[in-house]
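Summary for the steering committee. The consortium agreed at its last meeting that each partner would contribute one worked example illustrating the joint modelling workflow. Our contribution is presented below. We chose a case with several input lines so that the handling of multiple components could be demonstrated. No manual editing was applied between input and output; the record is shown as generated.
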Amino acid sequence: MGRSPHRKDIMEEFRTMKVIIICIRLAVFLASPFFLPGCVMQYQRQYLGDPIMLFDGDSEEKSLKTHIYPRREGSSGGDTNAGGGCGC
Amino acid sequence: MLKRCMAGSILCAATVIAFGQSDEISYKFQQYSDNNNVKVSTNVIRASKRINDHFSLSLSGLVDAISAASRRDVRSGSPLSTGASVSLPRTPSASVDGITSASPTDEKRLQPSATVTFTNDFIKMLSSDKSNDDPTTFSITGINSEENDYTARTVSAAISQDLFQRNTTLGFRFGKIFSRYHPAVRFVPSPSDAGWSYFGDGRRETDNLSASITQGLTTTTIISAVAGYSYDRGYLTRPYNVYRVGDQFRHEYLPSEHRSITFSGLFNQYIGIGNGMAVHLEYRYYEDSWEQKSTTVGMEIYSYIGERFILRPSFRIYSQSSAFFYRDYYSAEDRYLTTDLKYRGGNSYTFGLKGSYVIKDFVKPDGIGFPGIFPVAIDIGADYYLRASPADPQVLYSHYNYYHCSSEFNALWVQSGIRFAY
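What follows is the complete predicted structure of the assembly.
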């Protein structure tokens, strides 16, 4: 029992719509910061500037950990840290 | 050795020259040990100097010493039929270093690096609004890593742009790593190894590309998203990993190309309890062309104890699927084979605790410390790593013949550091 041409067209249209929706979601996500300008003014950032709120407060610690995990776990690469050396 | 000493001397001299007023110098020590008798001591020194309003320079030097009960050269042992029941040899005399045939392994890694950063507010220059504060930052980093059998040279460039009065930061980074194994002749794979012969001599090249966005959402919440892509090609395995299939010995053999993508989300929330707390949440998704998928979830909780002491417990859960070529037991028909259990599916957990003492309002005391150099922060922390889905001893034996490897892998590393300022 094959699918009718009409049903096939509907399925293809559905797939196209799905791709378009994913593209729109991605575009909205990437553009979202441009809709959020100035939502936190500079004088309101005393907490965001606290040392305990920094993403990279101790870069040496992060760098050393980044060197340990890839030796024990297979999912290495694709990170922001560009490092050298095997150390194994 | 002379080359390393010269590099170290140049680095130290450059560090002293680079150090100046309002600049920082830091030192970090890490001691790693695991239940496979691997011990690594790492020392990192870093100095940064602001040269003028636009340029800054950062220099660092890393030295680590590795000692381990190394993998024994499996070819010196008697053939073992796959699946036979044996006990793991654990006597120290059974270990032979992969390079020198001495025991145990004792290697050193020297890794100097330098970063030049340029910052300028181009938006302010182009805009009529001179109160604008959205700088653009360019940085270039070079890293040279040397071991007795491995070299890696890294160059990377990054650009970040602040927007909306520093409310948003967009970042892009590109890095390229050139690395190469140069093992003893008896460990060099045959020319039929596609990875070894990819560039002709066991070289490997890696491209890393990432894009990030950081957004302040509220006065107490900041988030960041990072997408990364990595492409490795060339010799992607280790020459000392030899596997026995029946009475045949084969080098570990992996595909010569590897592509991976990652998506990370970071969420930091400040909580006004006590003297202040912050919760950091991290999620990372990874997928690669070797059919590995992994998920990492991490959490760190920072708490001020008093005004200067910060306590930070942390927890990390990692879960991954096996690479398509991974087998617990290989047959002669298998094209690819690995002896590395990191390509086997499983979970791991990391528990950490760190304490930092921050001297925020330091007043220069007379006659204390080195002339003009004073401590501003001290920290100490420890992490315990546990692989929760261990392979059974028979699998370990088939992968690690004559290698001291425990079925329940765990590791502990302790870090301590001190930061100075003028």
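Confidence is low (pLDDT under 50) at residues 1-21, 70-104, 364-369, 401-405 of chain B. The CA atoms of residues 71 and 372 of chain B lie 48 Å apart.
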